[in-house]
Every structure is written in structure tokens, then in C-alpha cells.
Design goal:
- The structure holds 2 protein chains of 2 kinds.
- Chain A is an alpha/beta fold.
- Chain A is built from 10 helices and 10 strands.
- In chain A, helix 7 links the parallel strand 7 (161-165) and strand 8.
- The longest helix of chain A has 16 residues, at 173-188.
- Chain A is globular and about 55 Å long.
- Chain A starts with a strand and ends with a helix.
- Chain B contains 10 helices and no strands.
- The chains are: A alpha/beta, B mainly alpha.
- Chains A and B meet through helix 3, helix 4, helix 5, helix 6 and helix 7 of A and helix 1, helix 8 and helix 9 of B.
Chain lengths: 254, 260
């Protein structure tokens, strides 16, 4: 489904991704982990077609994603419908006057009949537990409520792939547990989930496969999520944990 | 949780998008990226002459150009600015001259009915915009605002200017994030393009108000009393001496040529 071959990207000559090889099958749940500044967000932007590889190739469903391809309006719209992206900060994702409008934005653009749009909006509000917020302005919500609204607005498009950047940032512990349960349900529904995080406790809860990106901006390891705790050397080497964290590593993953 | 997932979410979406004209999103993103890029560069460059000296000389030059009635002085100022321009990078020269030509052309068109003054005014506008462009392109914004403090400009003015410059960068980044989100969710025909655009503008406006409030509170918490202080001694090297001498020559030539 998603295939990256030797993908490299840099910002003004500063390397952000170095020769990344990654293959993600349909229905997989993958966590991208790594220290701050290792290139996780850049990789997610690339997967969403916001930026394009400087070198190497990115293929989605067998088609190479290039500037020329994305200039084809129909292809670009279909591509963005297939891949949903929830930004790290929900503030930069909400631009409609009410939560209801925010969720209906995508389905209406897809040209769905109004009863179907209403059904999707209602389902998303119920699924995310934000029915009471439907008429409120997204800007005045709390961080957790904004995050739920942002997820609902993307889910309403029914994407095949859901990409989340630091899904738990800014959420209280109760909402974190709720969100990880929700994402598990999403995976069990046969969808592909890709999330970037540096929260190790979260990895086995929302993914089956962990891809470790290290400070060299390259893939350092690609392994089952539940085996991550057995590789403290890798995590230390990637500068994701310190020696002081080692005694707590097993507990962290439980 | 899977049980509560609606059927439409479990199924694969069978969707064929319709074509739509939404190039305005990409154009807006590109404009914001230019602003962000420009602001980033502006905060890394600091070359050659001391910014305080540069700011003072530029200000004097602007006054002299607008006050001058002597063609010889205007030519001398033009020659001086061309010399300074020639020391800059090609990309910067192009960018400065683009602004200068646009401004002078605009002035020329506006004053075209008054033929006797239109050409001179257009040249003066060209030189003034070039001088301001050279200062803006060769000094950090923060250094320019700090230099203003040494010239006894009121603290409140400097504070507002400094904050505005900083927020141009932050809000441009924020707005570009919103435009990316709009682009990613624009998966079909958008019947309310203007309402999406006004939604983005409104959100940025609200965010700017919130950020301004938060920053004022944060500054008060860190002991800001409204007084803007500049630390560090101003340096004066060989390049500064040459620059000062060139500007002094210009000032003297203004006094001499205006009398002739």
C-alpha cells in the first residue's frame, strides 16, 4: 500500500530524512518512534504529499507520488481522501464555524447526499463522544475536545489510512486511554494506522509494528511493537531513552 | 470499540472525485512559505556594518533624498547606493531592485499629469526604497529595533514593532498549517471557497489576539515593566569607519550641492 524507496529530504540543506526504506501493507498499524527532531513529522508530511522526496520514490497503491501526479486535481483529491492526517496541534486543523460544520466539511465536498452527510456527522459525534459540542465553535474548545473534533473531521472522510502526529500530546490520561481504545477499534475495522510518537508506553497500545528513526534521520530498526522493550540498546543508541530509564523500561511497556 | 464503528467506516470508500478549481489554496501556501522563508533569513543575516550605524545613516539618507532639490546630489546618492548594492548577493540585489522599480513605477504613474516633478519624484522613491531595502536585507530585525532604542524612540513603539515582526513569522507558520489542513481535506468540490478562506482568516485573527494576551502575561510574569533595554556595547570596526566616512561625504556633498 505504502512504499518508500531510499527517500531523502532536507530543509535548506539540513538533512531531515536519510535514505528511508519503508513498506506498509494495508491494515497494518505502525508506530514511528524516535527522539525529537529525528524527522518523524517530516516523514508524515511526505506520506501525506505535503512535501515530496528530494531523492528516492514514494508509491501509494502502486502509483508514484510526484509533483506532476499531485497537479492532477482528481488524483490529488482521491489521494487526500484515501489518507487522513491528524496534525499534532489541532489548532492548525480546525477552520469551520462549528464542530458540526467541521465534521461535515469533507463529506459535503465528496458530494454525498445531505442525509448521508448528516448520518456521518452524527456517527462521528457519537463515536468521539462529542455530541454536546456539535454547535460550539472549535476555536473555543479545550485541547482534548479540539483533538477529538480534528479526529472526527478526518474520520468522516472514511480514509483507508489514518496518520496521526503525536496523537496523545495535550491530552489528559483518561482521554489518552480512551483514544488508544478508539484507535484499536479503527485498526480492527481493517484500516491502516500510522502514528508518530516518542511516548514508548503508547507504542504497543496503538501499533503492531514499530519503526525506529534515530538521530541520523535514518531507520535504525523495524520490529514488532511488543519486542521493543527487549531492545534497550537500540533505544539507547537512538537517544530515545537514557541509562536512568532502563530499570523502568519493562514497566513502561506494560 | 469495533462494534460501535458505523458500517460506512468499516467499508472501503468508493469515491470518484470531481474536478474543482482550488489553486487559491496552493497559492496561499506558497505566499506564506515565502514570508516564513524571508523571516527566517532575516533573522540569520547580520553582515558588515554595525546595525545602529546603518540604521542612523539610512534614516539620514532618506531625509536628505526627500529634501534635496539638486539633481547632482540625487545622482551622487544613486551612485553610492549602487556601490553598496554591488557588495550584496545577486538574489538580494534582484529582490531589492524589484521592490524599488515597482514603487517608483507606481509613483511615476500617479504623478504622470505633473510632468515636471513626476520623474524626479519617481527617482527619489526608487532611491528611498532601495536604501530601506538594503537596510532590511542586511540587518536582523531585532538589531534594527534595538538600534531604534539607542535613538530614543519610545519603548512602547519599539515593543509593538518588535512584537509585530515576531508575530508575522509565527502567524504565517500557523496560517500555513491551516491552509495545509484545508488542502488535505479539500477532497471534492468546495462550494464555499470564500467561507473556507474567511474561516482560516478568522482563526488566525483569534489566534493572534490570544497569543498577544498570553505574551503580555508571560512578559509581566518574567518582570517586564514596559522598559525596553538593550544590552551589549556597540562595536566600531574598519568597515564601520569606511561606511561612516562614505555617509559623511554624502552629507557634506548635500550641504555643498544645495548651495550651488
Amino acid at each position: 500500500m505504502i512504499e518508500l524507496n531510499k527517500v531523502t529530504y532536507s530543509y535548506d540543506g539540513e538533512c531531515a530524512l536519510k535514505s528511508i526504506d519503508l513498506f506498509i501493507k494495508k491494515g497494518e498499524a505502525v508506530a514511528l518512534i524516535g527522539p525529537i527532531g529525528c524527522g518523524k513529522t517530516t516523514l508524515l508530511k511526505l506520506l501525506n504529499g505535503i512535501i515530496l522526496p528530494e531523492r528516492g520514490a514514494y508509491k501509494f497503491n502502486g502509483e508514484e507520488i510526484s509533483r506532476k501526479k499531485l497537479q492532477d486535481v482528481k488524483f490529488s483529491k482521491l489521494f487526500h481522501q484515501k489518507i487522513g492526517f491528524v496534525f499534532q496541534s489541532p489548532d492548525t486543523q480546525l477552520f469551520c464555524p462549528s464542530v458540526r460544520e467541521e465534521i461535515a466539511f469533507g463529506p459535503r465536498q465528496m458530494g454525498l447526499p445531505e442525509p448521508e452527510v448528516e448520518k456521518r456527522v452524527g456517527d462521528c459525534l457519537a463515536l468521539l463522544g462529542i455530541e454536546s459540542l456539535a454547535g460550539k465553535a472549535p476555536y473555543h474548545l479545550s485541547g482534548g475536545e479540539k483533538k477529538k473534533t480534528a479526529i472526527a473531521s478526518v474520520i468522516a472522510l472514511n480514509p483507508d489510512v489514518l496518520i496521526l502526529d503525536e496523537p496523545m500530546s495535550g491530552l489528559d490520561p483518561k482521554t489518552q486511554v480512551w483514544l488508544s481504545e478508539f484507535l484499536r477499534g479503527f485498526i480492527n475495522a481493517g484500516k491502516t494506522l500510522i502514528s508518530a510518537t516518542h511516548n514508548l508506553a503508547l507504542v504497543p497500545r496503538i501499533s503492531r509494528r514499530a519503526v525506529l528513526i534515530d538521530g541520523r534521520h535514518a531507520v535504525a530498526a523495524d520490529m514488532p511493537s511488543d519486542k521493543l522493550a527487549e531492545e534497550p540498546g537500540l533505544l539507547l543508541g537512538a537517544n530515545l531513552i537514557s541509562e536512568a530509564d532502563l530499570p523502568f523500561l519493562g514497566k513502561e511497556f506494560r | 470499540m469495533t462494534d460501535v464503528m458505523p458500517d460506512w467506516l468499516k467499508a472501503e470508500e468508493n469515491y470518484t472525485p470531481q474536478s474543482d478549481k482550488d489553486a487559491f489554496i496552493d497559492k496561499s501556501i506558497m505566499s506564506l512559505i515565502k514570508i516564513i522563508g524571508g523571516a527566517r533569513t532575516a533573522n540569520t543575516r547580520e553582515r558588515g556594518v554595525n546595525t545602529e550605524l546603518k540604521t542612523a545613516c539610512t534614516f539620514i539618507l532618506l531625509v536628505l533624498i526627500s529634501a534635496s532639490g539638486s539633481t547632482a546630489f540625487i545622482l551622487a546618492a544613486g551612485a553610492y547606493l549602487l556601490c553598496v548594492l554591488s557588495l550584496m548577493r545577486a538574489q538580494e540585489i534582484l529582490s531589492i531592485l524589484r521592490g524599488s522599480f515597482t514603487a517608483s513605477l507606481f509613483a511615476l504613474i500617479l504623478l504622470l499629469p505633473a510632468l515636471n516633478v513626476s520623474f524626479t519624484t519617481a527617482v527619489k522613491v526608487f532611491l528611498s526604497v532601495t536604501a530601506a531595502g538594503i537596510l532590511a536585507r542586511s540587518a536582523k530585525w531585532h538589531s534594527v529595533t534595538a538600534a531604534l532604542h539607542r535613538f530614543f524612540i519610545p519603548d512602547m513603539f519599539i515593543f509593538i514593532l518588535d512584537t509585530a515582526l515576531r508575530h508575522i513569522f509565527i502567524l504565517s507558520e500557523y496560517a500555513s498549517g491551516l491552509f495545509y489542513a484545508l488542502r488535505l481535506r479539500s477532497v471534492g468540490r468546495n462550494k464555499g471557497k470564500y467561507s473556507s478562506l474567511s474561516g482560516v482568516a478568522g482563526t488566525v485573527f483569534l489566534k493572534s489576539g490570544e497569543m498577544a494576551d498570553e505574551m503580555r502575561s508571560a512578559m509581566e510574569c518574567r518582570g517586564f515593566t514596559g522598559e525596553y533595554r538593550v544590552y551589549g556595547k556597540p562595536r566600531f570596526g574598519a568597515a564601520d569607519a569606511i561606511y561612516a566616512a562614505a555617509n559623511l561625504t554624502l552629507i557634506l556633498s548635500f550641504i555643498y550641492l544645495e548651495r550651488v
